[in-house]
Specification:
This protein is of the alpha/beta class. The chain contains 23 helices and 26 strands. Bound molecules: beta-D-glucopyranose (BGC). Beta-D-glucopyranose binds next to loops.
Length: 765
């Protein structure tokens, strides 16, 4: 049926009334901002406008392969919008002074940095943080990071990194929150709140930058910077929610990712950066490229620098990190009519707005208080928080015969390439850290045990056997400490120490830079030489505890089968050694739960708990059945499932109850379960709730996390834990990408991991 013209006119009138109401909602603050920026833009030359889009690297800290030159001159000419990875309040103040005193329009610069898991007080790497499942702690760590960074002149962080990743070969799994969109979304929110607080213009809050938009975690074959390609329905349901959550929490900037989406690099992808981000999601902050993201589109095969810069601007990029494409080529593009003045003004305006919101127009030195830098960075209080947080991120993977906690030990043999290695405690992306001040495991055990216990240390082996590989992983001030002695000699020394001890603690795994950017691995097992060390130590017959340092899930099937106790400590930041000692010695009972599945071998990758059922699922408990979806040589089960993590105590789940057997669109169902601490230690447990939508218009995952609570129970204590489910929890994107729920049967699972749950069911009416 055709809509009558008068109806169309009424609708148009109504829309314009609504729009003007929206405009009326503009606050006084917005008006002041708009007036100031209108005035400024009116005065700016084209070069000055393009200058705002320019984000060169400072050359102070290296995070890529380009160093920008002549920065001071460019700042004087108004050709720089901000700088990143420049460290120290004095330097930042001096650079800001150039902009404020020697440039024509005196527009303040914005100073960014990769403050990824803490500033100088380093917290565990993000993957580790996510295993705490503790949103308060995560928010607090981001808050403290913001406090320290802002005390040293930084007002913008390139964090949170919220890329969902299901391929542990990709080194950057270490920088994100694992494989699950629900958990990832909660963490994204907590981090943005922590960084930005409730008022961005305060001198101790900083602007967050959600990255890498989008789908960077789905790089083919786990090889960094590689192509991604996925269906929209997967994108919407499984990969996009954490970005959206971070933006809903108010994140003021977004970083475009290196990868392509539907054949168009994110940096030039209008659908992504404008249609979805701005029009659908209502984002009104600014978009920055990733490091040389524009220039790289030449190699992607999209044209020369001028052409790709034009594409980027038109797609919705506002700021150019390091490429010199927007500032360097857009004048010509404008002259040729390829872009409009309005498009340049729009991008420039967004940068100026961010500076305004940070309070930089009011006081360009707002973040340059030298006293704050002296008093608020790397304080004993912050380090204490880092220690407490770190202990919450460790995942106890195995603990046969209650090998842990260590008790009544007179002599401990502390063996391994990561045992006395301060440089390799913080993990990747710790650009502001002073590694010499981090606490190694040897330091931590000595601090905790004093002279009571004898600690016999031996390195045992190098991190890797191959010196060329060692050189590749010994960068950014994190040498692995290559020992020239032979493997035989080093192992012999370690075995001698082990024989004299009551227990052996083996600090093994990856070094810091074996994960992170450009650190993909095709083989994610423990390096062979370290395995040989473990074999020799096991042969002594002494109880062996493996303290596993890693930035990714590893394939440690042999270790799981042979080593009695495994504590996964990721990279735990400045206070790593103290926190690990706290857990090894039982001062803290471990409670971390995996946010990413550990595969049995690389052939299982990608492996994640919320997969589809397929038309030929393998029956539960079976290994192999012909013509079912499985492997000939290995079961489908992972080595350690999502949500898994042991405690020194044990937790029993009983009496899963639903308040109703059906749910309506307006109603709710209470899900309750009794959890008992049935072991001998007080401790924390993460109670996890999953659902399964049994019948849908599209296939649905076999399980989806929809709630969790971290609780603390004294030994012997039982508590009834309650969750509320509403129809909102059952929404998903259907094949038309509409966010819907569909009536029918649902299952509810509650338990201690994704693989160990009680089960009930209800119907959505
Ligand atoms: C990384 C980003 C980072 C940027 C600036 C890039 O190589 O992909 O995550 O924020 O460098 O250091």
């Amino acid at each position: 049926m055709k809509t009558p013209t008068y109806l169309l006119i009424i609708l148009a009138l109504w829309a314009s009334i609504l729009m003007s109401c929206n405009q009326k909602q503009t606050t006084d603050g917005d008006k002041q901002m708009n007036d100031l920026i209108d005035d400024l833009i009116g005065k700016m030359t084209l070069e000055e406008k393009l200058g705002q889009l320019n984000l060169p690297a400072s050359g102070d800290i290296t995070t890529g392969s380009v160093s920008s030159s002549n920065i001071a001159e460019k700042i004087k000419e108004g050709k720089v919008g901000g700088l990143f990875n420049i460290k120290s309040v004095e330097k930042i103040r001096a650079v800001q002074q150039i902009a404020m005193e020697q440039s024509r329009l005196k527009i303040p610069l914005i100073f960014g940095m990769d403050v990824i898991h803490g500033y100088q007080t380093l917290f565990p790497i993000p993957l580790g943080m996510s295993c705490s499942w503790d949103m308060e702690l995560i928010e607090k760590s981001a808050r403290l990071a913001a406090q320290e960074a802002s005390a040293d002149g930084i007002c913008w962080t390139f964090s949170p990194m919220v890329d969902i990743a299901r391929d542990p070969r990709w080194g950057r799994v270490s920088e994100g929150s694992g494989e699950d969109a629900y958990l990832g979304s909660q963490i994204a929110r907590a981090m943005v709140k922590g960084y930005q607080g409730d008022d961005l213009s305060k001198n101790n809050t900083i602007l967050a930058c959600v990255k890498h938009f989008a789908l960077y975690g789905a790089a083919e074959a786990g090889r960094d910077y590689n192509t991604t390609d996925m269906s929209r329905i997967r994108m919407y349901n499984e990969y996009l929610p954490p970005y959206k959550a971070a933006l809903e929490a108010g994140a003021g900037s977004v970083m475009a990712s290196f990868n392509e989406i539907d054949g168009i690099p994110a940096t030039a992808n209008k659908w992504l950066l404008t249609d979805l981000l701005r029009q659908k999601w209502g984002f009104n902050g600014f978009v920055v490229t990733d490091y040389t993201g524009i220039l790289e589109m030449v190699d992607h095969g999209l044209g020369n620098l001028k052409e790709v810069s034009t594409l980027a601007l038109k797609a919705g990029v506002d700021m150019d990190m390091v490429s010199d494409g927007l500032p360097g080529t857009l004048k010509q593009a404008l002259d040729e009519g390829k872009i409009t003045q309005q498009e340049i003004d729009q991008a420039c305006r967004r940068i100026l707005e961010a500076k305004y919101k940070l309070g930089l127009f009011e006081d360009p030195y707002r973040y340059c208080d030298v006293n704050r830098a002296k008093n608020e960075i790397f304080t004993p209080e912050n380090r204490q928080v880092a220690r407490e947080v770190a202990a919450q991120t460790f995942v106890l993977l195995k603990n046969d015969n209650q090998t842990l906690p260590l008790q009544h030990t007179k002599t401990i043999a502390l063996i391994g390439p990561l045992a006395d290695n301060r440089e390799n405690m913080p993990g990747t992306w710790s650009v502001a850290g002073d590694f010499s001040k981090s606490v190694s495991l040897l330091d931590g055990l000595k601090n905790a045990l004093g002279n009571e216990t004898n600690i016999l240390y031996a390195m045992g082996t190098n991190v890797v056997r191959n010196p060329e590989l060692d050189a590749r992983i010994s960068i950014f001030g994190k040498p692995t400490k290559w020992d020239k002695r032979s493997q035989k000699e080093m192992i012999a020394e370690a075995v001698a120490a082990a024989k004299k001890s009551d227990v052996v603690v083996a600090a093994v795994g990856e070094s810091s830079e074996m994960s992170g950017e450009a650190s993909s691995r095709s083989d994610i097992s423990l390096p062979e030489n370290q395995k040989e060390l473990l074999e020799a130590l096991l042969a002594t017959g002494k109880p062996l505890v493996m303290v596993l340092f890693t930035g990714r899930p590893l394939t440690i099937s042999w270790e799981k089968a042979n080593v009695p106790a495994i504590l996964n400590v990721w990279f735990a930041g400045t206070e790593a050694g103290n926190a690990i000692a706290d857990v090894l010695l039982g001062k803290v009972n471990p409670s971390g739960k995996l946010s990413a599945t550990f595969p049995q071998n690389v052939g299982q990758i990608p492996i994640f708990y919320n997969h589809k059922n397929t038309g030929r699922p393998l029956a539960e408990g079976k290994w192999f059945t012909k013509f079912r979806s499985n492997y000939l040589d290995i079961p489908n089960e992972p080595l350690f499932p999502f949500g898994f993590g042991l405690s020194y105590s044990t937790f029993d789940y009983k009496n899963l109850k639903l308040s109703d057997s059906s749910l309506t669109a307006e109603g709710q169902i209470k899900v309750s379960v009794d959890v008992t601490n049935s072991g001998n230690y007080d401790g924390a447990e993460v109670v996890q709730l999953y659902i399964r939508d049994m019948v849908g218009s599209v296939t649905r995952p076999v399980k989806e996390l929809k709630g969790f609570q971290k609780i603390f129970l004294k030994k012997g204590e039982t508590r009834t834990i309650e969750f509320t489910l509403t129809e909102k929890d059952l929404l998903f994107y259907n094949s038309e990408l509409k966010f819907v729920s569909e009536p029918g049967d649902f299952k509810v699972f509650v338990g201690t991991s994704s693989a160990s749950t009680l089960e009930a069911g209800f119907v959505l009416k």
